[in-house]
Amino acid sequence: MAEKESAFQLARLLAVLGGAVVILWGILRFTSLIERGNVPSLDFAATVAVYGVLGVALGLISVAGSKFVKNIAWSIVLIVVGVLAFSLGVGFPWYMGPVLVVLSGLAGIVGKLV
Q: Which end of the chain is more exposed for a tag (fewer CB within 10 A), N or C?
C-alpha cells in the first residue's frame, strides 16, 4: 500500500513541477514579443501569442490534474497534455517540463495498476 501512495506522490510532484515549467515557458513566449526592438509582423505576433496561451493553458491543466493522478483517465490526460506541450516546440531547458508531465501520467498509471 505504501508503494502505491509513494507512486501517486511522485506523480503529483512531477505534474506540478512539469506544469510550472510549461506555464513559465508560456509566459516567456509572451515576453519575447515585448523584448523585441522592432514591431513584429502580425503573423509572427499571432503565432507567439497562440503558443503562449496554449503553453499556459496546458501547464494549468497539468497542475490542476495533479490532484487526480489516482484516476487512470486523468493520468492519460496528463500524458496527452505533456505530448501536446512538447509538440509546441519548446527549446533546450524547457522541454523538461512536458517530459515531467508525461512521466507523471505514467507514474499514475503504474501506481494504479501495481
A: N
